[in-house]
TrEMBL record:
<dbReference type="InterPro" id="IPR009014">
    <property type="entry name" value="Transketo_C/PFOR_II"/>
</dbReference>
<dbReference type="Pfam" id="PF02779">
    <property type="entry name" value="Transket_pyr"/>
</dbReference>
<dbReference type="Pfam" id="PF02780">
    <property type="entry name" value="Transketolase_C"/>
</dbReference>
<dbReference type="InterPro" id="IPR033248">
    <property type="entry name" value="Transketolase_C"/>
</dbReference>
<feature type="domain" description="Transketolase-like pyrimidine-binding">
    <location>
        <begin position="1"/>
        <end position="163"/>
    </location>
</feature>
<dbReference type="InterPro" id="IPR029061">
    <property type="entry name" value="THDP-binding"/>
</dbReference>
<protein>
    <submittedName>
        <fullName>1-deoxy-D-xylulose-5-phosphate synthase</fullName>
        <ecNumber>2.2.1.7</ecNumber>
    </submittedName>
</protein>
<keyword id="KW-0786">Thiamine pyrophosphate</keyword>
<dbReference type="GO" id="GO:0008661">
    <property type="term" value="F:1-deoxy-D-xylulose-5-phosphate synthase activity"/>
</dbReference>
<comment type="similarity">
    <text>Belongs to the transketolase family.</text>
</comment>
<dbReference type="InterPro" id="IPR005475">
    <property type="entry name" value="Transketolase-like_Pyr-bd"/>
</dbReference>
<dbReference type="InterPro" id="IPR051157">
    <property type="entry name" value="PDH/Transketolase"/>
</dbReference>
<keyword id="KW-0808">Transferase</keyword>
Length: 317
């Protein structure tokens, strides 16, 4: 996703001189070519994320479309006051980009884990929250958020995420994408967990004969409430999957929709991280497996949920 993002941003910067990249003194293996090609559209703000965000807001209010860029928590939690009081309050065209969402930087420990960011950012007025599921979604999302739609949080993986979509996609802000169709249950995934969701659905088809719908909820705010309610009505069972705390993220957002929609008989489970600081150390795959975010565990949890009680699908009259 990281490479796709910078490649897409480079195309945008070539076509629109308002597109500007501000970094927090990192990522030069990735952004160096951009900096050399567009010296008037690039700023290294140094290890000073608060200044980076304030600077970006000022440039945005002067007519630019500004991307701030750093890893995991650094562009979000450290300058949260500037994001809230400067960028979001003024509805400025500032796109806060975090590379390495979730536990991508697993071996560096909890200081480098972005596991509460979605909950915090989606609570800010005017702020959009986007977490693409694969490189194809990353390219489409970058183009959209860079078109000047106001303050946006773009949460990316790190590198090496597989392509889930096999053909062209109609990516729209706030509209979920269906990557697997089915009526036995639904997995709603966000960010880089989309590949895990698709593999878990495939595994359940092979082992249990189940047809599991998979929705890529790449936009968490504004959430595609219609897709959530439709999935609840048509499949009767929903599991949310995210590399994030189960509090306030995708699972919380979907739960809010389901409760207010009053869809009867829906079985629902959030799969994510507990509200605890991660003390284990290892790479992302190890940490995902440790915390039950691997394909086998996700498939087993959904199968168990389906067996807890008979599905009570709402049938069309």
């Amino acid at each position: 996703m990281r490479t796709t993002f910078i490649d897409t941003l480079t195309e945008m910067a070539a076509a629109d001189p308002r597109v500007t990249l501000v970094t927090g003194d990192l990522g030069f293996g990735v952004v160096q070519k951009f900096a050399e090609r567009f010296p008037n559209q690039f700023v290294n703000a140094g290890v000073a994320e608060q200044n980076m965000t304030g600077l970006a807001t000022g440039m945005a209010l002067s007519g630019r479309i500004v991307f701030t860029y750093s890893i995991a928590n650094f562009p979000t939690l450290r300058p949260l006051e500037q994001i809230r009081n400067d960028a979001a309050y003024h509805n400025a065209n500032v796109v806060v980009v975090a590379v390495g969402g979730g536990m991508s930087y697993g071996a560096f420990g909890m200081t480098h884990h972005a596991t509460e960011d979605i909950a915090i950012l989606r609570s800010l007025p005017n702020m959009k929250v986007v977490a693409p599921g694969d490189p194809a979604e990353t390219s489409a999302a970058t183009k959209k958020v860079g078109s000047g739609i106001g303050p946006t949080y773009l949460r990316l993986g790190r590198a090496g995420e597989p392509m889930v979509h096999t053909g062209p996609i109609d990516w729209q802000l706030g509209k979920a994408l269906t990557t697997r169709d089915g009526n036995d249950a639904t997995i709603i995934a966000t960010g880089a967990m989309l590949a895990t969701a698709a593999s878990a659905a495939d595994q359940l088809t092979e082992t249990h004969g189940l047809k599991v719908r998979v929705l890529s909820m790449h936009t968490i705010k504004p959430l595609d409430s219609d897709a959530v309610v439709k999935a609840a009505e048509e499949t009767g069972t929903i599991v949310t999957l995210e590399e994030h705390s189960i509090l306030g993220g995708l699972g919380g957002a979907v739960a809010e929709v389901l409760c207010e929609a009053c869809v009867p008989g829906v079985k629902f489970q959030r799969i994510g991280l507990p509200s605890e600081y991660i003390t284990e150390v290892g790479n992302q795959d190890y940490l995902r497996e440790f915390h039950g975010l691997d394909v086998e565990t996700v498939a087993a949890k959904l199968a168990a949920l389906l067996q807890q009680q008979p599905s009570t699908k709402r049938l069309a009259a």
